[in-house]
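To: structure subgroup
Subject: Chain for Friday's discussion

All,

I'm putting the inputs and outputs inline so they're searchable in the archive.
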Amino acid sequence: MEAGINPPGSLHGPSASEVLVHLEAVARSPGFVAAPRKGQLLRYLVKRSLAGEATNEYAIGVDIFGRPESFDPREDSIVRTEATRLRQKLRQYYQSEGQSDRIRIELPLRIYTPVFVARDAGTSANGGELQAVSPPPPSIDRRRPARAWVLGVGMAATVAIVAGIILAWNRPGTAVTTPSVAILPFLNLTGDSTQEYMSDSITDELTEELAEAGGMRVVARTSAFQFKGKEQDVRDIGRRLKVGAIVEGSIRRTGEDLELVVQLVSAQNGYHLWSKTFDVPDRDLRRAETEVVESTRRALLPAQPNPVQHVSGTQSPEAHNLYLQAVYLFYKADPESLRKALELARNAVKLDPDFVRPHSLIVKAESNLAALGRQSPGDAAEHSAGDLRAVLRLDPGSPEARTFIAFRTYVREWDWPKAESEFRAALAGNGPMGNTHNLYGWSLMTRGRFAEAHAQFDAGLEIDPLVQTGARSNSAIAWLLQRRYGDARRVIDSMFSLNGKSVSAYGLLSWIALAEGNCPALQEIQEKWWSLVPSDKGWVSPIYECRCGSPDGARQRLADATKDGTPRYFPPYGAAEAYGILGDRERAFEFLQKAAEEKSDTILYLQVDPLLDPVRKDARIQALATRIGLPAPAF
């Protein structure tokens, strides 16, 4: 048994009988007598815990709330709702008549195994050190895999437990080799759906702040948000994300203040490393976030006590709130949400020009609008040039800023030596690295350096293991560009396993079918794609016509799609690919030149794209590749 954990009946830990006596005292208190269903639920959970019986939402719904055997917790939220109310009722009890109780019962977020903690005898109610109780190993509930027993850990036990976890992280042969953490989406318990932006964006900020603290691997937001709204064993989450610890929490409104409940949990055994409740006005939210970051860092990196230097915050609560709303909309990722996010972020920097995060968000949002075909890459760069300069001025050591510079240096200036130097500088810093690995890998593959590119994508997937696009989709593209279509399809299959309606995955399958000339497959793939996004049919069908339709009809479609004044931007590089399929060197070169003039990132595929194989040897195209600074064709 790990140091600091006391079994039932030990010198400091309460026995099972003591827990039961305390349970009855709680259940018979005025607050619980007035809410008998909460008392019934509390008794059920505590007694199953002491008996070594694991439980889950389904069992509670059937046993306590009388739901039928067909009960589906995903559709009926009764258990989650009542568990939230029970947590609140327990908190009220221990803040009033139970303030001096030696034993405390807690119900951590997301799970239904109570935590039993006790103060050492002889200490005051305010100064008592808490000792954790260790229930017996649970028997398996066949309705769901058994959950690890979660133990409340007070200050006296925390140091020993953390030390044990650090040793496990660094023990040879263990799956997790460095301190690592994921910040799960915070729960919005305000009862107001309009506050969802607050809970999500706090999660985003904590993720970025912890990554910037350095010394640990912080799972990217994309993967952590795969668990939003899901009740799942923290050990299972830890295994899927390959982390040793998890931060989770919730927000609630109490009058004008925001109640922020946060806890750090070991993903290996469910032990609580620390937890805290903050009651702060909105203007002090940044202070609470900073304390969460520092507490987590001290727990995971006790040998590195120096505090984090935060350069990304603001003293303006109004600017901070605008930024939180912008982040929430940014991750919706559709064009309209991105435009609204840009408006909010620009309003934030008007209030505080030195607030670096909204400047960074503007750079990313403009780039994403270009990636969605809503503007040219050149326009995106122009619209966000001032914000990129602001990021570099305000946070010159930021890996994210260095990554922006590296990518734009490569795409806009075609200066590969300088760009690669910036990528390496970014990787040497502290901060979110997933996008750095992804963009560096993408740049490497456009130059035919595929082995190095795959190494970067693998590193990116370590940080963002459940991401659907980014490093995962670019890994598929790298295999495609190597003409290893079977390997590309295996990666695309993993994209579909994460999202069965992935438009990006259908786009990559279309690229493969175009390269292979497999028209039946291409038609089937694109019909599925267009069923998801009907507006894409007119946008991509010209390329489809070039391979599988009438050449004359394809040329007319291309002419219509690329003429001035069309409602949707059609990228010149896509037109060049289409003419490449037709073997039309003249028109392919014309549109490759236009892509180069726009400084489109896709022009950098020139020497590796299989769709350009029929025209690549044209002397004019090779001269263009030389001017861009691309190496000789890889194929």
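Points worth raising on Friday:
The longest strand covers residues 245-254.
Confidence is low (pLDDT under 50) at residues 1-12, 121-176.

D.
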